[in-house]
């Protein structure tokens, strides 16, 4: 019997992506399983990166980070934009918004494509907003004063209508 080769595995991955209308509807567990097969058929850091992202999106974030960090041993990955973006995404999924932002900044510094840079800058702004909101929420919970310089407050208590320049915790 003829066993499927790397082209058939890649086609199956592409088909799963095409079937989903949104990223949330994507069968990430099946894609991760297919990348595991592809990794045996065609071993490369790129396949490992893609497998790690699929695993993270499927909810196995800790294992995905370990797998992605295994690629980190190859120092050329430190300047490989897809690796940095994958690390940013997995760190974001793990709740490490600052680590995610650091890797996104590094990816931005390496890209020469203005469209890619614009997209990544938007993602970076979103990561900073998330990180700031978490920090402000923690300050509020501890009864501490936060001094944010924002166009609008991102504290969960104030979303979506409260705006100001400075604010103190609420009683």
Task: State the helix count.
Answer: 7
Mean model confidence by pLDDT: 82
How large is the radius of gyration?
20 Å
How would a crystallographer describe the biggest sheet? Answer: none
Portion in strands: under 5%
Can you describe what's shown?
Helices cover about 65% and strands about 0% of the residues. The radius of gyration is 20 Å and the shape is globular. The protein has about 170 residues and is an all-alpha fold. Helix 1 runs antiparallel to helix 2 and helix 4 packs antiparallel against helix 5. The C terminus is likely disordered.
SSE diagram, text form:
Blueprint: H1 6-19, H2 28-41, H3 45-57, H4 61-71, H5 81-94, H6 97-110, H7 114-141
Helix pairs in contact: 1-2, 2-3, 3-4, 3-5, 4-5, 5-6, 6-7
What attributes characterize this protein structure?
globular, 171 residues, mainly alpha, 7 helices, disordered C terminus
In short:
The protein is mainly α and 171 residues long. The protein has 7 helices and no strands.
